[in-house]
Specification:
With 165 residues, the chain is of the alpha+beta class. It is built from 2 helices and 10 strands, in the order E-E-E-E-E-E-E-E-E-E-H-H. The strands form 2 sheets. Strands 1-2-3-6-7-8-9 form a 7-stranded mixed beta barrel. Strands 4-5 form a two-stranded antiparallel ribbon. Strand 1 and strand 2 form a beta hairpin. The longest helix has 17 residues.
Length: 165
């Protein structure tokens, strides 16, 4: 994977309602058109709706993005230890040297180091959601829930590699 340590890169999330959120990140590793590993430092406490989890200020977020997967994964690290893994179900992920763009399909999956799995935000899906998007959500949930340990080992390894650069 081509490396671009500490280069600025933008994460651009478009929600189903058309609203956009952008995050200024650091590119730890980027392979345009394929995958990216980004670093973002949490600047305010973030309570995770529907859970008791609160992501504290200063949490290091290592975002893992793939152009060929229906999700991305945020690996939250506090004081060198994993707090949790937060997976956005996503479509149309485009990875370039200066940005990662995707459509956030609302549903999220929280994976805890203990092995607990929580599916979040399904109630946010609009009733008129396109069947193609419903299929992407189903495929993502199947992948995330059927073999989370394999994914988490991959994410842990990629996080270690990216932070070691």
């Amino acid at each position: 994977m081509a490396s671009q340590p500490r280069a600025p890169i933008t994460e651009r999330k478009t929600r189903l309602d058309g609203s956009v959120a952008e995050f200024a990140c650091e590119a730890l590793a980027v392979e345009p058109g394929r995958r990216a590993v980004l670093r973002y430092l949490v600047d305010r406490e973030w309570p995770i709706a529907g859970t008791a989890l609160r992501v504290p200020v200063g949490t290091v977020t290592i975002g893992h993005f793939w152009s060929d997967r229906p999700y991305n994964v945020y690996h939250w690290v506090v004081d060198g230890r994993t707090l949790a893994y937060y997976c956005n179900v996503a479509a149309d992920t485009v990875i370039s040297a200066d940005a990662v763009r995707y459509l956030d399909l609302a549903v999220d999956v929280l994976l805890r180091p203990s092995g607990a799995i929580e599916i979040l935000d399904e109630e946010e899906l609009p009733p008129d959601l396109a069947p193609a998007h419903r299929l992407v959500i189903a495929k993502a949930l199947e992948a995330l829930i059927s073999s989370p340990r394999t994914l988490l080992r991959e994410v842990e390894s990629a996080t270690r590699d990216a932070l070691a650069r």
